[in-house]
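A common beginner's mistake is to predict each chain separately and then try to dock the pieces by hand. The better habit, illustrated here, is to supply every component at once so that their relative placement is modeled jointly.
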Amino acid sequence: DVKVTQSSRYLVKRTGEKVFLECVQDMDHENMFWYRQDPGLGLRLIYFSYDVKMKEKGDIPEGYSVSREKKERFSLILESASTNQTSMYLCASSLGKQHNQPQHFGDGTRLSIL
Amino acid sequence: AQKVTQAQTEISVVEKEDVTLDCVYETRDTTYYLFWYKQPPSGELVFLIRRNSFDEQNEISGRYSWNFQKSTSSFNFTITASQVVDSAVYFCALSTSSTGNQFYFGTGTSLTVIP
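With all components supplied together, the output reads:
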């Protein structure tokens, strides 16, 4: 089974802090994704990556950056956290370059910015 | 542009009732895939099914069935004889040949099954 592990289930940070959310997958998947989930808005794509050191902006990249130094790890960085970034963050991975592969998700990180 | 609409925000049913979750999609691509995911209260999205645009056969898996109709751009999900464990948020998603691995998710339908 695919396992996508997010480093924290719950996280509380303060406004202005630099926040790191980590995601690791164990199935050698090429693609990794970061979403945020908010009530009534569904899942919105922040950034994704097709390969090591490669990144693409999703629909809402403002205020975020990402890092993919190793194939199995994809980090989401909030450069200067703000209260409107309080949300559930979901990491996902998928196999290969075809668009038919399902994405596999981690348990999510519920982030609160105070 | 790609879009997925799940018009039902919340549904409540009594245990053992059947329930259908609607999903309507928009795309100009002729090659695309549709997916359903389940998100239980624990938070992890669980992949349920994938359907490609060239296969309109309905699918049944136990109490779950899916009805794909290209004529109405719909990919509806029916749970037969619902159980309390079916309570979750269900998401429909679309990926297309022109957008690669990027998924477009609907806003989800929250299903509550009352014992």
